[in-house]
Every structure is written in structure tokens, then in C-alpha cells.
Amino acid sequence: MSSASAAADKAQDSTAFRVAARIGYVVLGLIHLLIGVVAVAVATGGAGGGENADQSGALQRVHDAPAGALLLWVVVLGLAALAVWQIAEAILERDPDAKKAWGHRAKFIGTAVAYLAIAGTALSIALGARSDSAESTQTLSARLLAVPAGVFLLVLVGLAVAAVGVAFVIRGITRAFTKHLSLPSGAAGRGIRTFGTVGYVAKGIAVGVAGVLFVVAALKNDPEAAGGIDAGLRSLAALPLGQVVLWLVGVGLVVYGLFCFARARYARM
Questions:
Q1: What distance in Å separates the CA atoms of residue 169 and residue 149, rounded to the nearest whole number?
Q2: For residue 253, which of 11, 3, 54 has the smallest C-alpha distance?
Q3: What is the largest CA-CA distance in the chain?
């Protein structure tokens, strides 16, 4: 094989991989749209309020749709490609500030792990198993509480998850996400920035509340108090004006899903 032919094949493979990664962003958008719709249903007392407002609930709805099994395999491949992309970003990170570089690497690796976890849930559902994120979260909490210093470890987990939620909120408010996008000018670009701000803040609130529930579970020594994003969203409804807050967060997650669709088009890769 000539060097020109090898270069052409490499470029073709790179293009195919980028397309797969962009499909991953579309998948993320679909998942967050479904989570947001269920959250709004919970807030308004709609018929969909009995479903799980988390990744497993969203993926189960995909499975139950026409050609759902095939769509789940697309979800798995797209998210796996996104995870590999994030790992590559971590390896190629070249920030001259060593502390910032390691911070960026940690973010990329953490994001890759999150994508792989969702891909794993999609794979298990595609293979016929039913997955419940809340049950998995409670199982993890119970196992941590059963070991020495388990309460301390579960508090650390909760604080770490809450910190991720705060990071999402900050990223949305500061619009730091735009650094990784090649946005168009004019109204389209402004709209995408607005959707990103609203979406990141809403997702940060949902993730942050889930982290707080881990801490509550540790302090109460009750693993059932931890329940992931679904439990976090439903706990918002118990707050003063909770139905309104939950509705706003649900709509925000829908907006984040729409932002992910735009991200699939404009992400720098």
C-alpha cells in the first residue's frame, strides 16, 4: 500500500470516527430531552410522571420505541466514540500550566467514564436486561456503608457529585462551553449560547441535588435515601414552590437536549 493510500485510509477512518462522536452528541440530546419531558410530567402530574427521570428511564423509552433495539446500538456506539474522543483529548492536553492541564485531563477522563456508564446501561437494555439507575445507586450506597469508614466514603461521593453539578452551573453561567464550539454568527450563535447556558445550569441543579442525596444517605446511614438524578428531581417537588422549580429544571433539561443537537453540528473535533 502506498503512503498516499495509507494517508487517505487514515483520513477516512478519522472522518468516520468524528461522525460517530457527533452522533454521540445527538444521543446525549435525545436522552436529556426524554429526562426533561419526564421531569415536566412529574411537576405537572402528567401520565409520564411514573417513569424514571434519569438515563435508564430515557433509554428504556428508546428501547420501547419502534426499532428501539437498533437505536440502542446506535446509542452504545455513539457514546463509546465520544468516550474515546474524550480520552484522546486527555492524552493530547498541552496546556502550559501543569495544574490546569491535569485539571483538564481529569475533566476529560471523568466525562469519558460518564459516557461509558450510560453506554453500558444502553448495552444492558439492548441485550434484554432492565436497568434501574436509582436501584444501582442505592446498591452502591449500601455497599459503601457496609465497609469501614463507609459513611465518610459516601459523603465524599456525594460531595464529588455535587461538585460536578456546581461545575455545570458555573460552565453555563460563564459560557465556558463555547470554547469547544465553532459557533455561527448572528441570531443562530446567540441562540445556541442561550440554550447552552440554560441547559448547563439546569443539568447542574439536577446533578447537584443528586449529590446532596448521597450525603443525606450517608448521614442517615440509609442507602435508600440515595437515588440518583430521578430521586434528585423528584425531591425538588417537595420544596416550597417545588413544582415550579421542577418544571423549570425539566424544561431546562429539554433545552440542554436541544443544545446537544447543536453541539453535534458545531463541536470542534
A1: 31
A2: 54
A3: 69
148 touches 191 (CB < 8 A) = no
Local structure of residue 140 (DSSP, 8 states): H
132 and 230 Cβ atoms separated by less than 8 Å: no
Other Cβ atoms within 10 Å of 97 Cβ, number: 9
Q: Please count the other Cβ atoms lying within 10 Å of the Cβ belonging to residue 206.
A: 29
* Cβ 188 vs Cβ 258: under 8 Å: no
Half-sphere exposure of 150 (CA within 13 A, CB side): 15
pLDDT at 6 over 50: no
What is the DSSP code string of 137-160? Answer: HHHHHHHHHTSTTHHHHHHHHHHH
Q: What three-state secondary structure class fits 181?
A: strand
Q: Is the entire prediction scored with pTM above 0.90? A: no
Cβ-contact 75, 55 below 8 angstroms: no
Tens digits of per-residue pLDDT, 129-182? 766 666 677 777 888 888 888 888 888 988 998 998 999 999 999 999 998 899
Over residues 16-55, the pLDDT tens digits come to 778 888 888 998 898 888 888 888 888 887 655 556 667 7
Residue 267 pairs with which residues in a beta bridge?
181
CB neighbourhood size of 229 (10 A): 26
107 burial type by CB count under 10 A (0-12 exposed, 13-18 middle, 19+ buried): middle
Grid cell at residue 202: 439546569
Helix (H, G, I), strand (E, B) or coil at 183: coil
Q: How far apart are CA 112 and CA 221, in angstroms?
A: 31
Instruction: Give the span between the Cα atoms of 53 and 51, in whole angstroms.
Output: 6
